[in-house]
Design brief:
The protein is mainly alpha-helical and 446 residues long. 78% of the residues lie in helices and 0% in strands.
């Protein structure tokens, strides 16, 4: 039996998860927005607008390709050396990589070297993020008291929403500059601002305590020598469940957060300054929804809440595009808000406690990380690129894009039907939840 963490440790864990994920999402949002708004002209100026957009999104996808590599590298240390060490290291790598993008020369200055350096920085940005959200989710789930894991772990996605808000706000401020100033130095300031968020997040995480579950593993000498190998040997079933349960969510989430920005500007004809504002509103609502769905999953279970969200997202893409194509600011705002509430933060808020509970204690960090990050490549990493390609191939029609979003979500819905309920599962167990016929909840009486 483990000793519960003291309230101070719980608060530090909550802040560490929230602020760290805020930095990760801030980095991704400012990069994704820059891909849609300025990187085509800065790094791919000789291409047509459509090809430049595709090239920008291809560079964006490189960061997602690096996610599982970072996950493979860092997750072995998360289960051997502890959650805290990895979370501080990944945070630093992400922040430095994003800051470096703001220092890059453009195509007009160094030619092809410019996009090559951009892709390299994007790779290290993704490499550092490879174990970030999964690590935060694992730490918070293992630290929270029984009956409150959903609400505490969901703060990771509230942090993601905060990062989106800060990223959108940075671009709103940058767009108050003249077009000449924005393209000359304004975009650089946006990326340089990541340094401030990094410093704050590192200071908070240095005071972080290890989770009670990991401390118990150390006492019992149960730390695995090779967590990644054990996942592939013993934990394939929950890892594959995590992969397929997340792939559709990841695809829709980054379609809303990245592709919709370029679609609104290039196809619908919305003013570019409107995009960061609507993303900020959507993220704010999504962050609140993440906590709400986390609390609901503590009360009625992870599986029914998650499946209800997925079922709604299967039906959402068509109505979303109909609303976007009206050109009405109100209809667009409602559509984006619903997308953020369900796909952007709501469903992932439930994942933050659901996915760690699926795994046994020996390789939980590695299992969650590998499942989520491989699915991020297949889902979110290529989603903006696939959507932009479909839009180009079908002469601007949104129907194939909506069909793609729906198909990806059906995959996740089918996987969720195969997953067990895990609410309040004993996290010190070495066995996976999929190995137990009926998980026995241990509700807190306090």
């Amino acid at each position: 039996m483990i000793t519960p963490a003291d309230p101070g440790a719980v608060r530090r864990a909550a802040w560490a998860g929230l602020v760290g994920t805020a930095l990760e999402q801030y980095d991704f949002v400012i990069y994704g927005t820059a891909s849609a708004l300025v990187f085509g002209d800065l790094f791919f100026p000789n291409a047509t607008p459509a090809v430049a957009l595709l090239a920008s999104f291809a560079a964006y996808a490189v960061g997602f390709a690096a996610l599982p590599l970072g996950g493979l590298f860092f997750s072995r240390y998360g289960d051997r050396l502890g959650r805290k060490w990895v979370l501080v290291t990944t945070l630093f790598l992400m922040g430095v990589s994003t800051f470096a993008i703001g220092l890059l020369p453009t195509y007009s200055q160094v030619g092809l070297l410019a996009p090559a350096l951009l892709v390299l920085c994007r790779f290290f940005q993704g490499f550092g993020a490879g174990a970030e959200q999964s690590g935060g989710a694992t730490l918070l789930t293992e630290t929270a008291v029984v009956g409150r894991r959903g609400r505490l772990a969901s703060l990771v996605m509230t942090g993601a929403a905060l990062g989106t808000v800060l990223g959108a706000l940075a671009w709103i401020l940058a767009q108050t500059l003249s077009e000449e100033a924005l393209m000359a130095w304004g975009w650089r300031v946006v990326f340089a601002s990541s340094l401030v968020v990094t410093v704050v997040a590192v200071l908070i995480r240095r005071r972080l305590s290890e989770s009670p579950v990991f401390q118990e593993l150390k006492k019992q000498h149960e730390k695995p020598k090779s967590p990644v190998a054990e996942v592939f040997q013993h934990g394939r079933q929950p890892m594959l469940l995590v992969l397929f349960m997340n792939v559709g969510i990841s695809a829709q989430s980054y379609t809303y957060q990245v592709f919709m920005a370029s679609y609104l500007v290039s196809t619908v004809g919305v003013d570019a300054s409107f995009v960061p504002k609507v993303l900020m509103i959507g993220a704010t609502c999504g962050g609140i929804a993440a906590i709400g769905f986390g609390i609901l999953s503590d009360r009625v279970g992870r599986r029914p809440v998650y499946m209800a969200i997925l079922a709604a997202l299967v039906l959402l893409p068509g109505p979303t595009f109909i609303a976007l194509n009206t050109g009405s600011p109100y209809a667009i705002t409602v559509a984006i808000v619903i997308g953020f509430v369900l796909a952007g933060q709501g469903a992932v808020g439930v994942q933050m406690s659901y996915f760690p509970e699926l795994f046994g204690s020996r390789y939980r960090y590695a299992g969650v990380t590998l499942g989520r990050e491989f699915s991020s490549v297949l889902g979110g990493g290529v989603a903006p690129l696939i959507c932009a390609s479909l839009l180009t191939a079908f002469s601007g029609s949104w129907v194939p894009v909506a069909a793609y979003m729906t198909l990806m979500m059906i995959i996740s819905l089918v996987a969720a039907r195969m997953a067990p309920e895990t609410r309040d599962r004993d996290l010190t167990l070495l066995t996976d939840a999929t190995a137990l016929p009926k998980p026995t909840p241990e509700r807190s009486t306090s």
